[in-house]
Amino acid sequence: MTRDADILRAGFEEFGRFINPMIAQRATLTGEPFRMVRAHGGVLHDAEGKAYEDFHGTQAFGHRHPAIALAVRQFLESDIPSWYPSRLSPHAGRFARLLCERSGYDNAFFTCTGSDAVEAAMKLARAATRRPRILGLERAYHGCGYGATALMPPGPFRDPFGPHLPGVETLAFGDVAALEQAFEAGGVCVLIVEPIQGEGGVRAVSDDYVQAACALTARHDALLVADEVQTGFGRSGHFLLSAGWPRKPDAAILAKALGGGLVPLSAMLTRREIFERAYGSDVEDGEAHNATFSYNAVAAVAGLAALELLTEELMARVSELGEWFRERLSSALEGLPLFREVRGRGLILGIELASPDHPWLGFEHFGLPSLAEKGRSPIAPLLCHRLYRRGFYCFPCGHDWNVVRLQPRYFIERETLERFTIACREELEFLCGLT
Ligand SMILES: Cc1ncc(COP(=O)(O)O)c(C=O)c1O
Q1: What topology does CATH give the domain 31-60+312-434?
Q2: CA of 228 to the centre of ligand 1 (A)
Q3: pLDDT, tens only, 357-395
Q4: CB burial class (10 A; 0-12, 13-18, 19+) of residue 403?
């Protein structure tokens, strides 16, 4: 047996035993088809050869896109260093230049996860302004670093980890008056906003709120940071959704698909002038925020290949296809009593469902009373469970289990989305029949 065959045979159980038994338990309880052994044509396949279309979103170009895999393979077959003790990595430099040209920023910091890039933005803001207060919005998800944890809603992502980072405050979503008051109190270094809250339920900030955020950060000389880990790199049909804001944010965060789905990679894009205010006084300041693998060439090579795939034509396709999909899904689900709405932009969409008031359709009935006590509704997990059996891999949003998040790959065929729409209508209709 080859090493890979042996790993595929036993490694899923080893994950549960040696990494995280609760993830293994969740995947089993929800009936996720997690035993994937092959990725072909952007799609996942299990050992029986059944195909699953992945709607998680991290694999924006599809699993193991051949152009990205080829670029990484060719680099590994060369003898070019993949890591430089000086940190001066030419591949990272080229990737930074091209990202800046595409985004209109002129300074980039690379790291491995979205959380790390958010922490970098928070530290940049404090170092550049020497002010303490970091503001974010209710139901935000900015990752699991300490700054971002302080911005999480009450619950498992936040409660066990106190005391939280001082100076980090959450504001009511969409409340312009609360935002004005927060700035009037002084001492704000940064406001961090997701243009569309992903885990918060695919909720877009309103134009009025964005306008106020742009004006207030400018007036108070605070940084405005757009966390585009979910919306950016083409997902919303734009390179950065925040590029359309009245004032270009002082920094933007990219992650997830940035490394082509093959390599962990995230970026914080900002302006050179802000970098210099924060880290430009002395040579030793320049490395005051860093990570060992920030500039590794393998990640940059994957990023360069992903950037090449992400053409204007592809983003236009995402925009157009997303609009068609949203309308098609809305009209197909219209009238079902458990359906509320489909929302989002491009290929970041969410289906909001109603919580049924029915004794069988509660987590208590499924032997999970603690989830029932927390007010969690099982309807979106149940719909996802039924969709797994139809060959679609999707999830509820992390902070709002009434919303099914849909983030298909950018090259997905319209017929596959049509098949999803029909399956989704039939399975939700079935669940409605139980209430
Ligand atoms: C908007 C947003 N910011 C930050 C993060 C954190 O990214 P990571 O999980 O790579 O640390 C996420 C993760 O889903 C996210 O959705």
Answers
A1: Aspartate Aminotransferase, domain 1 (3.90.1150)
A2: 9
A3: 777 778 878 778 888 777 788 899 999 999 999 999 999
A4: buried
Query: Does ligand 1 have an atom closer than 6 angstroms to the CB of 404?
Result: no
- For domain 66-309, the CATH class is alpha beta
Cis peptide before 160 (omega within 30 of 0): no
Closest CA to 251 of 227, 273, 230, 277: 227
User: pLDDT tens across 110-141, in order?
Assistant: 999 999 999 999 999 999 999 999 999 999 99
Pocket probe for ligand 1: among 157, 192, 230, the residue whose CB has the most ligand atoms within 8 Å is 230
Residue nearest ligand 1's atom 5 by CA: 143
Q: Which residue ranges does the chain devote to CATH 3.90.1150.10?
A: 31-60+312-434
- Say if pTM beats, i.e. exceeds, 0.70: yes
State if residue 228 touches ligand 1 by the CB under 6 angstroms criterion. Answer: no
What pLDDT is stored for residue 334 in this prediction? Answer: 98
Q: Where in the chain is the domain with CATH 3.40.640.10?
A: 66-309
With a 6 Å cutoff on the Cβ, whether 255 touches ligand 1 is: yes
Nearest one of 150, 225, 222, 147 to 188, comparing CA atoms: 222
- What is the CA angle 247-200-166, rounded to 5? 75
Does ligand 1 have an atom closer than 6 angstroms to the CB of 115?
A: yes
